[in-house]
Every structure is written in structure tokens, then in C-alpha cells.
Amino acid sequence: MAIVVLKDKCKGCKLCVKACPFEAIDMDGKLAVINEKCTSCKQCVATCKFDAIEDTDAGKEEEVVDLTAYKHVWVYAEQRAGKLMNVALELIGEGRRLAREISDETKVYAVLVGDKVDQLASECFAYGADGVYLLENDLLKIYNTDGYTKVLTDSIRQYKPEIVIFGATYIGRDLAPRVAARLNTGLTADCTRLDVKVSSYIDYANKNTTLDTSDLDPNSTETGLKQTRPAFGGNLMATIICPRTRPQMSTVRPGVMTKIDRIEGATGEIINAPVELAASDIHVEIVDVVKSAKEIVSLSDAEIICSGGRGLGDPSGFDLIREFAAKVGGVVGSSRAAVDAGWIDHSHQVGQTGTTVKPKIYFACGISGAIQHLAGMQTSDIIVAINKDPDAPIFEVADFGIVGDLYKVIPEIIAEWDKAEELYSESLHHTA
Amino acid sequence: MAFKIIVCAKQVPDTNEIKIDPVTKTLKREGVPAILNHDDANALEEALRIKDKYPDTHITVITMGPPQAKDMLMECIAMGADEGVLSSDRALGGSDTWATSNALAATVRKVAEKNGGYDLIFAGRQAIDGDTAQVGPQMAEKLGLPQITYVKEFEIADDMKTITVKRALEDGYQILKIKTPCMLTAIKELNTPRYMSIGGIYEATQKEIPTYSAADLGVDPDKEVGLLASPTNVYRSFTPAPKGKGVMIEAETEKEQADKLLVGLKSKFVI
User: Fold this and answer.
1) Separation of alpha carbons A322 and A332, rounded Å
2) Among A75, A239, B137, B198, which residue carries the largest CB count within 10 Å?
3) Which ipTM was obtained for this model?
4) Cβ of B246 and A169 within 8 Å?
5) Is there a domain that residue B217 lies in?
6) Domains of chain A, first to last
7) Is B244 a domain residue?
8) Å from B205 to nearest chain A CA?
9) Is B258 exposed, middle or buried (0-12, 13-18, 19+ CB in 10 A)?
């Protein structure tokens, strides 16, 4: 522990003993002594009136980091109960793309943390990993913040990766900030686009954004990580860099990056990283892990999504949306407004604060199209908007717009759905 | 001894109300209401429920922001918090999540010094303007505290030492036990925040809200807080390009609209 009491300055006033949240200071006569319960919270440093307590780590991380000492791209390959999360495979594909853009020597490594997770390595290789780090310990069987943070931070310090990316899952977003804070490096949340080459960034920006890229040099050899993410509820996009510290860290939104095609029988290097972990390092007790029995909504994998919004008028409107979804083989989604109104569970929410989706067809029913909603669905292949307000912003992104009463239009779509083929050939006949 | 809770809150623009200026392609901030961040209201509500059950509980709401963030702290007091503390300084401006967590951890230490420690820090999972969900865990790290994020159910034992929570996952939840002192972050499912009370509003007008500068907090603007100390910087920012406008389906009847739509979907090979 890096908290020390300066013997010549300590007056034995016990203010620090009172202030310590962890009972980590004992008195030895007139001298305060830090014991093993200390977590370096620095409450005592702030409390001491005599400047008698110091944090010897202060300023230590401020040393100029030798950026060139950091190499390769790491993907935190999140697994739950021995199964890899889909986002881990997406990120291995993305990490591979970034590594190849940095240099021919740069590799992408999957980092597997858990207990007896070595059998997942072959899956990581099949989806493009050059190597796999195994961080195994029986205390890591189920995700816990303290244990996972410690072993991952220790490995990053030892092996010095240049980039570390995590899926922006409920677990990735618990773990990554803790690791980044311990390493005193930057972390960018919930990214939807990553680039290293300036030329790739320019291509992306020119195709998809309003950004003026004329001041960017496409021949630049700079390969810092450019991390693009929505902010202000998707009203603004920001590209974030981490120029002075390493590793560069991001969490990436699930469903946004693309897996590579599976390479059967692919193999690579496996590194068993040293893991030092004791039960006393872990401060949260896991009583139970419960799989939810509620209706499974896999919005991110759905090919067709039927979403309802405030325009439904009341919660029973979702009965029609469910009927619609059942007919077309889709999944029920919703806008934030409908969730906020308590009409449907948050797990159905599409948008900046919900799930990002890119189905083949997105039906927006009674959804006005707040920017925060558009941020989560506008990359859908085809967007169909049904709304009674002809000025609703949703029509700006819709491929097909219908101005009308959704309670009249949707039943007709349901009734006609099976005749689509017939109607289409008829229409061809007409034109011919 | 009283149970001491520190609630972290942020005053945010209501992102549902934000519009883009069609000409300049920038955010139109004028007239956008500033509100108490939703998840933070859930954190405060849970703290207030502890106080309802154990009246000997003391709740301090802390925030970092411009001077007008005092209005939000007054709202928190009007809901039932005992006091509000504002950390405000130009030197704190431009802080990323790492630098913000340094400033807020220093604010916690300052409050703890004044009130004789703390037992629980409760924050919202994320703010609706940045949506990072990073500041809670990063503060916990700076304070050496164990954390549980995404808390959707909360229970504290009568000994006021052991907390049991349900922590949300995409596909279910975990039941976790943690000892005080600790840091928790709240999600919407945790509770429904109460309204301000008339008595509370009166009380809020009577209370002084102390403001701490970077110097008061003892944080170094070159190394710990503010734009220059932040490890991340904005490289570029822009508005997303709108997708090209599609076809409006015009027809006499709903049936005709439906038929034309289905023909359109067929022609795009999506059905």
C-alpha cells in the first residue's frame, strides 16, 4: 500500500482513525499506523491537519509514457457461464482490421478471463484472433468487478497492449472504467466506429457524416485510435483520441462491428498469463445468478422489428404491434417515450439509451423520430414509417412513409402480408 | 451514529428536447431545459427511502458543474436531501470521465471530512448527455471502494452494514451482497422518484449551498482535473448525416397503402 505516515509529523491526534472508512488505521501509542485493510482511498491524507500522511503513488503515473513500448490489439473476449458473447467475436473481427491497419507485425489477441475457459480459444482463433491470453483462476468463475479488474490490470501492465477494446455490455461497462481508472489511461464509452488510419477515418466520414475532412491528411502515418461515438442522445457524434497515455481503451456497442467469416481449424498462440488473486481481493459476494424468465427480446439479432411509440395512444396499442410482429416474424421494439410512459419494458427500447438495431426491415409505428431514437435504428436496411403527422422527423429517414392512422393501416398490412408475392407480380404486369 | 449517504447527481440538458440547427448543423442549446439526470433521481430516491425507514440518515448530494447547477441541488433538497454541495471552477471544465472522477472523489473526501465519513455513495448509472456510465466506477476506483453498477433492487440489513442488491444483466440479474462503505449505481428500474414537497421547497430556499473550487478540493488543474489533465480529447465532432428521404406512399384507402407498401418491400428484395 502506498499510504504512509510520516513519523516526525504525526501528532497522534487520531483524526485519521476517525476518518478512515475501512478501519485501516491503528494507533501505536502516539503514532498512526496503516494496516492491511487500507484501500488507498486517501481520506486520511485529506483529513490530516499536519500533512503527516502521504500517498507515495501520487504523481507516479504522471511519468511520460513511452508510447512505442505498447504493441498489439487486445479484445476482452467476454464469456458468461463458459459461453462467448457474440460481441466478443464481432470485436475480434474489428480488432483484426485495426491491427492490420497499424502494421504487418501488429496482432490481435483475445483475452479470456474466467475459470477453465481454455476451450473457448479455438472459437477465438476461428473468428480471427492471432493469439489468446488465458487469465484463469477459480475465483474468476463468475464475473466479479474486483477480481476481473485486478487480473486484467496486472496483465495489461505486464504485456503492454496498444489498444484494449471491450463490448459495451452491462459487464464490459462495469469492468472497463475500473481498469482504465487504475491504469490512469483514457476510455471512450459505447463507440460505434473505430479507426486507426487517417485515410480510413476520412473515407468513413465522407461517406456517413457531415464532417468537413479537408484539413485531414490522407497520407498521414499517424495510427492513434480514433473512437467515434454518439453524444447528447445521438444529436452529436464525437471522435475521441487518447494521445498521451496507453493503452487506448474503448467499449464498443454490441451489434455494430462485423464478425469475419469463420475460419475452420484456425489456430494460434496461447499464452497462460500469470494470475495472482486471493479471496480477500474480492469484496462483493455473489449470492445467485438468475437468467430472466421474461419474454426474450433479441432486438439486435432480429431481421424484422415492429416498433411502437407514443402515437399508439395507450399501452394496449402494443397488442396490435405484437400481432403485427407475430404475422411478419418480427420482434417488438419501442421508442423511449413508450418505455418512459410505462407502456412496455425497457428491454424493448431501441435508440441511444436502448438497443442499436440494424434489421432488414424496421417498422416505426406511431414513432415521431426523436434523434435519440434515430441514432439506434437509422442503419436498418429498410425503414417503414407509419405516422399521422406528415411532419414527423421519422419520415426524413424512412424508405417508405405512410401518413395515416396506424390502427387502420397495420391491420391492412397484416391482412395483405401473405399476398405480397402476388401483388408484386401484378404490379410488374401492370408496368409491362 | 447517523448513516451517511452521498448521492452523486448531474444537471443535464433534456436530450429529448435538443434540436439541430438545420443551417449550421450544430446543437441548438437555447431553450433546452436543464434537468436532474434521470438515473441520479433514482439514486436519490433510494437514499430517501433509507431515510424514510431510518430517520437518522443524512443525505448529501454532490455535483460538479457550472454555478446554475445549484438549482438542481435545491431540487434535490426539496425532494428530501439534507444538503447539497457544488464543485465549480473553470479549471474543472473540459474534464473527461477520468478527470471528473478525480474532482468528484476529492469532493467526497471534502464532504467526508466535514461530516465525519460516509457509509454509502449512490450515483446514477449514466448521464443522458454523455451516456458513458464511467464516472461511477472510476470514482469508486479513486476512492478505493468496492462497486456494484446497474442496481435494480436494493435492501439494507438493520445493522446498516450489509447491502443486498439485484444487479441487472442483459439476460437476467445477479443477486450480490456488499459491505459498507461502497459505491452503487442506480438504473431506472430501481424505483420511481418522488416529487418535491412544499415543505422541502421552503427548506431548500433556506439552505446555503457551499461551492468548492479546485483549490478547495486540493486537485491539480495540470495533472488531475480539467481539459489538459484529461487523457482523452475530442479529435472531431459532427452531426450524423440524415439518411436520404424515401418514398411517401399516397393512396385512397388503407388497403391500397398496404398493397403499395408490400410491392415496394418486394421490389427491394427484403420480403
Assistant:
1) 6
2) A75
3) 0.90
4) no
5) yes
6) 3-58 (3.30.70.20), 67-281 (3.40.50.620), 299-430 (3.40.50.1220)
7) no
8) 30
9) buried
